[in-house]
Amino acid sequence: MKNIISLFYTNLFLTRRLFTAVACCVVLFLLSFFFPWLGIVPDMAFFVLVLLVLADMVMLYRANKPIFARRHAPERLSNSDDNELGIYIENKYLFAVSIGIIDEIPFQFQKRDVWFKTFLNPGEHKLINYILRPTKRGEYSFGLIRVYARSPIGLISRRFNFDQAEILPVYPSFLQMRRYELMAISNRLNEIGIKKIRRLGHSMEFEQVKAYVAGDDYRTINWKATARQGNLMTNFYTDEKSQQVYCVIDKSRAMKMPFDGLSLLDYAINASLVLSNIALMKEDKAGLITVAEKIGAVIPADRRHAQMNKILEVLYKEKTRYLETNMEALYTTIRGVIKQRSLVVFFTNYESMNALQRQLPFLKRIARFHLLLVVFFENTELKQLSEQHAGNVEEIYIKTIAEKFAYDKKVIVKELAKHGIQSILSTPQNLTINTINRYLELKAKQKI
Predict the structure, then answer these.
(1) Cα–Cα distance between 60 and 222 in angstroms, integer?
(2) Which of 12, 143, 210, 435 has the most CB atoms lying inside 10 A of its own CB?
């Protein structure tokens, strides 16, 4: 009995309409002292208000489970993307109700205004959709769904609690990966900035001899086959397949820097995921190595269907470390794991020439055996500072320092090129597009 009474009081809430009505009654009682002719009007008003409150309670509490709510959520969320969730709500009352809904979303979002209002007729149901954009990988805990129902009288509201506590994992941006995949299948990659690159020369992988059709390159005509058949015949070549593409991700403190809510490591992980998927679609082999002060995950290059799931599961758990990158361990691992010449895409960050000089000897050794592509980040905030107008001595000083750091990034690109090392200097937002463009360019030039 005590539990029933406790549940009754804890789920009963007074509305603003009730407080307004009580205030009106109080005013009437005060006025009755100065205007006796009001008579029993205040008493009647208060009596009517009490009857309405009791009627409201009966309407809301006579049914046991008149409201039903359920959260619709995917099995996992995609980091840095807009993820759509929904709340299904159903009214089983015999009258229309005004509904207020609170969804207890994970604390990582730091939102206290997830409040939805709607109106439901008898027997009506709705699906209320909303968007969440996580900026960190990991586990996100959702809590209860709390529904506040008001009858047409609207003096009180009854709360319904639906236990939908669940933990959803936030994976690297698989939605972005699928978007690139769909556009690649439909040959629409150019719509998102992927360039169409003209293939230079022919691949060394011969496929077949076929009849000449208008538009074929005259240089591919097979004169011996033409003589035998009596018709023009051409050699048909296909793209080289089964080339190895390794994404090497630096997890050291250099990748902790945040941009637009995401760390540089998250940008590198999202780009690696998309690049690996594109490489598999091109029938190349994709592999992964993570490194900080020690070697993290190592996934040998493969092109089987399960490879992307392996890469996704590994990248889901990776976090930044707070020590320097152990380049000696990285070089030893690459020499031990990668047995043939491959494209090694090294995602890292350099803020000064000194940072590059410490790693350059190992980068040159890796570049002797593989095609090394170093990907690092342009500091967009410093770029904005360098482009701002300086109005005083302090602003001139800040602008000069910002321009120096921006210039150092360009010097790093030239220094790497001097030693035959490919590089990409990209803003975090354009990292994925720039990396895919360079991969397709290197493949078109048959450098891998």
Answers:
(1) 86
(2) 435
